[in-house]
Amino acid sequence: MTNTLPQALIRNFLGNSPVWYKQAIIGFLILNPILFQVAGPVVTGWLLIFEFIFTLALALKCYPLQPGGLLAIEAIIIGLASPESVAHEVESNLEVILLLMFMVAGIYFMKSMLLWLFTKILLKVHSKVMLSLLFSLSSALLSAFLDALTVTAVLISVGVGFYAVYHKVASGKSTQHDHDHSDDDDVGDTHRSELEQFRAFLRSLLMHGAVGTALGGVCTLVGEPQNLLIAQKAGWDFVEFFVIMAPITMPVLVAGLLTCVLLEKAKLFGYGEQIPLNVRQILEEFNREENRKRTKRDVAMLGVQVVVSVFLVLALAFHLAEVGLIGLCVIILLTAFNGIVEEHQIGKAFEEALPFTALLVVFFSIVSVIHEQHLFQPIIHAVLEMSPSVQPAVFFVANGLLSAISDNVFVATVYINEVVEALNNGDITREHFDKLAVAINTGTNIPSVATPNGQAAFLFLLTSALAPLIRLSYGRMVIMALPYTIVMSLVGFAAVSFTL
In Å, how far from its chain's centre is CA 70? Predict the structure, then answer.
């Protein structure tokens, strides 16, 4: 009960987060200024990094923007970094911010085309092995040119849509009736085992698709936010980035797709479940009904989306403009030619991207602390004193381990800035810098599939409305991702060790 104002304030602080989590954040906020006075800025800075990683690792308890943001604000107040240095970091990474703001929002207006594509794949392909391979490969290709979060959002939409259709029929209702597909009470006894099988089928497809977004996302400049950040520091354009990364990303892509096939054939780690025949018949009938309802205007909208997607690929390949500005062009073209002209309609497109954009600015605040207090310099210098031939492999492992428990964008931001500083100071050559940049990019992208903490697409799937419906928990996601993590990380490590 919140009978007093202080109790109400405590209850409101960080919302529905566990009490122990709130107490930990309050403890951090009390401890940091004291430690700053007693032990100095370096010790406090290192503690701040661990505190921030704590908020990233427990993103399911509370979105990291609020607790991480409070820590960043306090760090600036007590003098670990200045507002000017934060502004400089934001200014230096404006291209990445524009990517998140406009490209993700632009792809939102392509959802109906992507939904149509994945629906066709799901219903036309009867072999589960081929279906899984196509889901993974399609997700990889789309994520390489579009955005992993949006591709995952489409996969979730497909999953929720088909689950709701079958659940309604299994509950004895027609497709026209209102129905709560999260409630199994009305599901008939004859349908319960069928429903569990369908859940397992959807779980495996969604995980193949989510891993596919990571396989494709590492390959190109727009696949993940940190890719553009690294490319910007290195001065690489779209084609150059792809070519430089290919010796590592292409073997990993092949290994990932082979793993997909083997998991389905071996039926291990929760994979291999087939779609029940009755479920397929229900979904096919529903799809036929939806096709009959499709108007000429709907067909025209799909056509516009296809044309704009071709423009997007060409604009990125030929670097017609900065990535974020290309995303803004996509928004304008799709909304103008598809009649989306009301402000509230357009505003929905920005809902997915802006929370993470705000979190990225908080990342930059923590990076400012790392810069001003020179926290990572001893580590970077220690690595740079090793044999140049082993340094890329060491960076790959270090980035991979950190990315698996925290967030790959934050880890990439920290390491690439330190390597840029080493280059500017003359500690490494430009050729060696390129090798380390490749190791950082692949290290933050590939092993981070181990947990939902590392990959934003995985976390998005885990926190979606679909996850509880198909019984996809944190532990189950980690187990299902484990064979991919092992294979992709080992192949990536070998490629980095022998090709760089």
Answer: 23
The closest alpha carbon to 210, from 149, 146, 119, belongs to 149
Q: Which of 267, 248, 251, 277 is nearest to 132 (CA)?
A: 267
Closest CA to 115 of 332, 372, 287: 287
Instruction: Give DSSP secondary structure letters for 77-101.
Output: HHTSS-HHHHHHHHHHTHHHHHIII
Separation CA 440–CA 155 (nearest Å): 28
Q: What are the b/e assignments for 454-493, b being 16+ CB within 10 Å?
A: bbbbbbbbbebebbebbebeeebbbebbebbbebbbebbb
Q: How far is Cα 408 from Cα 405, in angstroms, rounded to an integer? A: 9
Task: Report d(CA 214, CA 224) in Å as an integer.
Answer: 9
Query: What band does 464 get if pLDDT is binned at 50, 70 and 90?
Result: confident
What is the spatial distance between Cα 162 and Cα 202, in angstroms, rounded to a whole number? 9
Contact between 57 and 453 under an 8 Å Cβ cutoff? The reply is: yes
Residue given tokens 């370096």 in the structure block: 42
Q: Identity (one letter) of the amino acid at 356?
A: F
| Statement: residue 320 has pLDDT above 90 | no
Q: Which H or E element spans position 3?
A: none
- Tell whether the model's pLDDT for residue 251 goes beyond 90: yes
* Distances 254 to 145, 263, 486 between C-alpha atoms, Å: 18, 14, 14
**Do 217 and 227 contact (CB within 8 A), yes or no?**
yes
How far is 203 from 132, CA to CA, in rounded Å? 11
Q: How many residues does the chain have?
A: 500
Sequence-distant (6+) residues with CB within 8 A of 46 are 375
